């Protein structure tokens, strides 16, 4: 090597024995934009440093500018694979602040939608774990059924992905018959597809060798890192907000909480898979309960809260009180009680929390989203210490990191 | 095992008689054993039906793009079979999702690494103009950093809209002159973005 | 005997006495305020105590109250006792002139990034944090955007006309309780630009990237 170098190398880079590899922010393995700078010793990872914020959209500052009902569109874009859960979580937070009680039918319909979106989120995560380990077919199979879930969303709220579904107090319109027909079709056909998807992966030798032992974490460390959701349940702790602090009438349903042992990628895959089966179970129970409503109850789709829920247009044009309520809601004259509330729901990735401080004004004084992805991504360097480079990729996709939720 | 895949619970028979577009040959003069046309038409025809896209998916539009890539709205039938994440091998940069200011230099870097001829499609409201995020941290449209050919509005745009945008790119590609990339106007356009 | 808010409050006052104030239960969640220097001691006590066992840090964030003298920045901790299923919230207040708070990273590893985020948004300096630098915003940013005096929009953007967006002067009324001064400390005024493609000086990507 000549002593004369015209390449400026960083300090100490010749003496160092590890290779620096920059994974991201644009990289096929990172689903979303976050960067990992790995120090590799051959193929073993010595350390990993994360940089995030490449899609920081200032949700919390934006929320200080918008009245409560306009913040739903922001919550869509948190974990965009399962937007209805975020929407419903936000509405539940507002309902807690405002003291609105929703009728049972609304709760059951909300549960159907939330479980459908949980299935849709876990489908993306599991199939993408497959894609990252080289198995593309499973992804194509299940994306078909995600399209059916999207069609159900379209029937209910008009939009596929960023749904802005529901209002404070319920839904904007009742579920049409077509929505129920599509739901029945889903319930009839999907279990076979899920079984087929499972059979592609769970006892697949290559997949098992790739994922077993990759990125394990113990229960103590997971709790200390603030893990929640499927990642925590894979480590052995059965903390599920739906069971611990039931919201939206989850206490009326029977479901199990799949729990893993080692917290590695294989356990996470199996936990998510198990949760999809449990979600199907919940949807079936909820659908049966919805069909049992008779008479006037069978067409209730929102709470009786005229201060916060826009009245029907026919009433606005004919009745005085409805006109006044409509005016007050739209112009922001409704009384929002001052106070602070923290509410959390079980999102696709874990405990999605909303910390809302209201000072009585039209817009929140402070809104903070407790985002599960942001909190557990910190553990990535510990999960991949000493692992091989290919494990880095699998661990990242099995954690189900959604950049929108991470950076908010 | 054939599985019927029709979700529309009240299906209407699609009218496919004269409704399928095929790739037609460009205009030219035909004769016994020869066919003359403009070079740009032939080159354009070849290029547009074999574009290799680079899906620069950052957020929600990226999930709609995954739906476009999947079998229901198949992008591969337009020739965009081979998606790669390396700009060195791609023609079309599809920016899908919000680009924050932190990400701006990276979009620029990826664009610079692409070889000519290259096209850019801004998918979604955020990539086109910042979308609903009129904030201190979001770049108000990627055309602040790279020249864009097609904008697909929507939040997120339906997969059909993304496919429509792709077809508009195909129109642009098919009609482009072979001299465009060396022309003064193009150089001026790149200079206005600070790209030599 | 099930753990109740009353029991927790009694244990806390038994240990810390009058230093913990403002005990409230908004919407059923026990909330109290602790002096800034005691935040770690309170969390350690709640963690170690066999009966209280608040061993999960749900959330760590801050709130800016610009009108409270010397108590402008509040750091809010949400803790959760998973075995008995009880949550708790406590706040520490500090002044924006010298916002120093002890870091919780020794006790909870999840506090690492949450404190970086709080620093990024509010400028609170966490004493003893291993890596306190900006996490979500660009590293070169000189101000702390979530503080109430800073506006939401990027002040150097030239394509969106404030008047057309219903924001003639700066939005003074929108942020309740905030004094919004029309200034962005990073950029002086809206720069003019003639040629298409050349954008404002803050977003001058051209000079940045041609230095390849």
Briefly characterize the structure.
The complex is a heterotrimer of chains A (408), B (196) and C (212). Chain A has 408 residues and is mainly α.
Shape descriptor of chain A reads globular
Which oligomerization state do the chains in this entry correspond to? heterotrimer
- In spatial order, strands of the major sheet of chain A run 1-2-3
Could you say what the CATH topology of chain A is called? Cytochrome-c3 Hydrogenase, chain B
CATH superfamily of the domain at 5-127 in chain C: NADH:ubiquinone oxidoreductase Nqo5 subunit
User: What fraction strand of chain A?
Assistant: 5-15%
- Structure summary, number of beta strands of chain C: 7
Tally of DSSP β-strands of chain A: 6
Q: What is the SS-derived class of chain A?
A: mainly alpha
What profile does the largest beta sheet of chain A have?
Answer: 3 strands, antiparallel
- Uncertain ranges of chain C: 170-212
- The secondary-structure class of chain C comes to alpha/beta
> How are the strands of the largest sheet of chain C arranged?
1-2-5-4-3
Q: Describe the biggest sheet of chain C?
A: 5 strands, mixed
Order of helices and strands of chain A: EEEHHHHHHHHHHHHHEEEHHHH
Cα gyration radius of chain C (Å): 22 Å
What tags apply to this protein structure?
heterotrimer; A: about 400 residues; mainly alpha; Cytochrome-c3 Hydrogenase, chain B; three-stranded antiparallel beta sheet; 17 helices; 6 strands; about 45% helix; globular; B: about 200 residues; alpha/beta; four-stranded parallel beta sheet; two-stranded antiparallel sheet; 6 helices; about 10% strand
Describe the protein.
The complex is a heterotrimer of chains A (408), B (196) and C (212). By secondary structure, chain A is mainly alpha-helical. Chain A has a single domain (59-407), classed as Orthogonal Bundle (Cytochrome-c3 Hydrogenase, chain B), CATH 1.10.645.10. Helix content of chain A is 47%, strand content 10%. Chain A is built from 17 helices and six strands. A three-stranded antiparallel beta sheet of chain A has the order 1-2-3. A three-stranded antiparallel beta sheet of chain A has the order 4-5-6. In chain A, helix 4 (104-132) packs antiparallel against helix 5 (137-157) and helix 4 packs antiparallel against helix 11. Chain A is globular, with a radius of gyration of 23 Å. The model of chain A has no long low-confidence stretch (mean pLDDT 89). Chain B is an alpha/beta fold. Helices cover 31% and strands 12% of the residues of chain B. Chain B has helices at 39-48, 60-69, 104-113, 125-129, 159-174, 184-192; strands at 29-31, 34-36, 53-57, 92-96, 119-123, 150-152. In chain B, strand 5, helix 4 and strand 6 (150-152) form a beta-alpha-beta unit. In chain B, helix 1 packs antiparallel against helix 5 and helix 2 crosses helix 5. The longest helix of chain B is centred in the C-terminal third of the chain and has 16 residues, at 159-174. Chain B starts with 28 loop residues before the first strand and ends with a helix. With 212 residues, chain C is an alpha/beta fold. Chain C has a domain at 5-127: NADH:ubiquinone oxidoreductase Nqo5 subunit (Beta Polymerase, domain 2, 2-Layer Sandwich), CATH 3.30.460.80. In chain C, the strands form two sheets. Chain C has a five-stranded mixed beta sheet with strand order 1-2-5-4-3. Chain C has a two-stranded parallel ribbon with strand order 6-7. In chain C, a hairpin with an 8-residue loop joins strand 3 and strand 4 (73-81). The termini of chain C are far apart. At the A-C interface, helix 1, helix 8, strand 4, strand 5 and strand 6 of A face strand 3 and helix 3 of C.
């Amino acid at each position: 090597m000549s002593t004369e170098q015209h390449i400026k190398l960083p300090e100490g880079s010749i003496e160092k024995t590890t290779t620096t590899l920059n994974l991201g922010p644009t990289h096929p393995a990172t689903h979303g934009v976050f960067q990992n700078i790995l120090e590799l010793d051959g193929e073993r990872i010595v350390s990993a440093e994360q940089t995030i914020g490449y899609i920081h959209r200032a949700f919390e500052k934006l929320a200080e500018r918008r009245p409560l009902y306009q913040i739903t569109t922001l919550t869509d874009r948190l974990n965009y694979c399962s937007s209805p859960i975020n929407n419903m979580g936000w509405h539940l937070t507002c309902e807690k602040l405002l003291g609105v009680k929703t009728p049972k039918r609304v709760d059951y319909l909300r549960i159907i939608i939330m479980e459908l979106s949980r299935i849709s989120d876990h489908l993306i995560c599991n199939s993408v774990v497959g894609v990252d380990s080289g198995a593309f077919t499973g992804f194509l199979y299940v994306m078909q059924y995600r399209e059916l879930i999207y069609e159900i969303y379209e029937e209910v709220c008009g939009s596929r992905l960023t749904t802005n579904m529901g209002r404070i107090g319920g839904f904007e319109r009742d579920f049409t018959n077509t929505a129920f027909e599509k739901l029945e079709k889903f319930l009839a056909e999907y279990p076979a597809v899920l079984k087929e998807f499972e059979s592609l992966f769970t006892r697949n030798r290559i997949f098992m060798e790739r994922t077993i032992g990759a990125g394990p974490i113990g229960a103590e460390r997971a709790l200390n890192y603030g893990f929640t959701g499927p990642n925590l349940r894979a480590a052995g702790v059965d903390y599920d907000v739906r069971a611990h602090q039931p919201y939206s009438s989850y206490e009326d349903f029977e479901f199990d909480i799949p729990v893993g042992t080692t917290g590695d990628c294989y356990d996470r895959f199996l936990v998510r898979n198990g949760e999809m089966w449990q979600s199907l179970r919940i949807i079936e129970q909820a659908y049966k309960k919805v069909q049992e409503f008779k008479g006037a109850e069978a067409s209730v789709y929102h709470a009786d809260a005229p201060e916060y829920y826009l009245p029907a247009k026919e009433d606005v044009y004919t009745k005085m009180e409805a006109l006044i309520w409509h005016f007050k809601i739209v112009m922001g004259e409704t009384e929002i009680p001052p106070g602070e509330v923290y509410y959390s729901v079980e999102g696709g990735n874990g405990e999605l929390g909303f910390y809302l401080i209201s000072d009585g004004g039209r817009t929140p004084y402070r809104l903070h989203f407790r985002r599960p992805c942001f909190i557990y991504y910190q553990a990535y360097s510990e999960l991949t210490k000493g692992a091989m480079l290919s494990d880095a990729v699998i661990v990242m996709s099995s954690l189900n990191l959604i950049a929108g939720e991470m950076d908010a | 095992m054939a599985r019927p895949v029709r979700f529309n619970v009240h299906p209407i028979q699609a009218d496919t008689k004269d409704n399928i577009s095929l790739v037609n040959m460009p205009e030219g003069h035909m004769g016994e054993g020869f066919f003359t046309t403009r070079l740009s038409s032939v080159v354009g025809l070849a290029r547009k039906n074999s574009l290799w896209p680079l899906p620069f998916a950052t957020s929600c539009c990226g999930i709609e793009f995954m739906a476009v890539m999947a079998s229901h709205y198949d992008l591969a039938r337009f020739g965009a079979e081979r998606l790669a994440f390396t700009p060195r091998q791609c023609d079309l940069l599809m920016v899908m999702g919000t680009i924050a200011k932190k990400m701006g230099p990276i979009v620029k870097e990826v664009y610079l690494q692409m070889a000519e001829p290259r096209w850019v499609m801004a998918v979604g409201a955020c990539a086109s103009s910042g979308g609903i995020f009129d904030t201190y941290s979001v770049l108000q449209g990627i055309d602040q950093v790279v020249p864009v050919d097609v904008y697909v509005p929507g939040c997120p745009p339906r997969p059909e809209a993304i496919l429509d945008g792709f077809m508009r790119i195909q129109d642009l590609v098919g009609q482009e002159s072979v001299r465009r990339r060396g022309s003064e106007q193009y150089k001026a356009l790149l200079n206005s973005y600070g790209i030599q | 005997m099930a753990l109740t808010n009353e029991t927790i409050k009694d244990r806390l006052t038994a240990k810390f006495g009058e230093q913990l104030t403002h005990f409230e239960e908004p919407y059923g969640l026990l909330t109290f305020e602790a002096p800034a220097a005691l935040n770690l001691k309170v969390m350690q006590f709640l963690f170690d105590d066999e009966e209280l066992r608040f061993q999960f840090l749900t959330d760590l964030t801050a709130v800016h109250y610009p009108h409270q003298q010397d108590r402008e920045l509040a750091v809010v901790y949400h803790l959760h006792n998973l075995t008995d299923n009880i949550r708790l919230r406590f706040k520490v207040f500090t002044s924006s002139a010298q916002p120093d708070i002890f870091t919780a990273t020794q006790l909870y590893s999840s506090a690492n990034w949450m404190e970086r985020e709080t620093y990024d948004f509010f400028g609170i300096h966490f004493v003893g944090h291993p890596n306190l630098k900006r996490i979500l915003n660009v590293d070169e940013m000189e101000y702390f955007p979530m503080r109430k005096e800073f506006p939401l929009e990027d002040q150097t953007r030239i394509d969106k006309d404030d008047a057309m967006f219903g924001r003639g002067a700066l939005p003074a009324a929108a942020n309740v309780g905030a004094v919004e001064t029309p200034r962005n400390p990073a950029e002086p005024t809206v720069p003019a630009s003639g040629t298409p493609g050349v954008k404002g000086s803050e977003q001058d990507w051209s000079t940045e990237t041609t230095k390849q």
